[in-house]
Design a protein that fits this description.
This protein has 171 residues and is mainly alpha-helical. The chain has a single domain, classed as Up-down Bundle (Ferritin). It is built from five helices and no strands.
Length: 171
């Protein structure tokens, strides 16, 4: 049985995962309007992954005697200054998710909720991969140096190659 504190923290994480998925959905849509098809597909794939993370949390909360709540969340931004800015925002978001997971891990240890601690280890590993993945993309975009449409074309093409390999956690 989940304590009220752990249940609330997990429900807050559900909300963060929903917001993350909505950010990626919005980024994908924006990329489509910019004719960055590969980047759009990339963000749409991550939209789906974040929804899976949310469902996994909801199922766990309900299975453990809590009540997973469907959150009301603010709409994500719909415009982005650049492709680089979108990926930097995605990286910042992944760091926020990592920090939140870490706090729930700490709480689960404080409350001696070892089942939740064990459950969260998948999220800890997933977030390490996700942060590294997005950091490498931001680094590559900076290396390409998008100063014109040709740089943007090559960045989108490079992102398209990432679609050919399994995303982190899906090997």
């Amino acid at each position: 049985m989940l304590s009220a504190k752990v249940e609330k923290a997990l429900n807050d994480q559900v909300a963060l995962e929903v917001y993350s998925s909505d950010i990626y959905l919005s980024m994908g849509s924006w990329c489509e309007t910019q004719k960055l098809e590969n980047s759009a597909k990339f963000f749409y794939r991550h939209f789906g992954a974040e929804r899976e993370h949310m469902m996994k949390l909801m199922t766990y909360v309900n299975r453990e005697g809590g009540h997973a709540l469907v959150p009301k969340i603010p709409a994500p931004p719909s415009e982005f200054k650049s492709l680089e800015a979108a990926f930097e925002m995605a990286l910042d978001n992944e760091k926020k998710v990592t920090k939140s997971i870490g706090k729930i891990v700490e709480l689960s240890l404080e409350t001696k909720d070892y089942g939740t601690f064990t459950f969260l280890q998948w999220y800890v590993a997933e977030q390490q991969e996700e942060e590294g993945y997005f950091q490498s993309i931001v680094d590559k975009i900076k290396m390409i140096g998008i100063k014109d449409t040709r740089g943007l074309f090559f960045a989108d093409k490079a992102i398209g190659k990432l679609l050919l390999v399994p995303e982190p956690g899906k090997k």
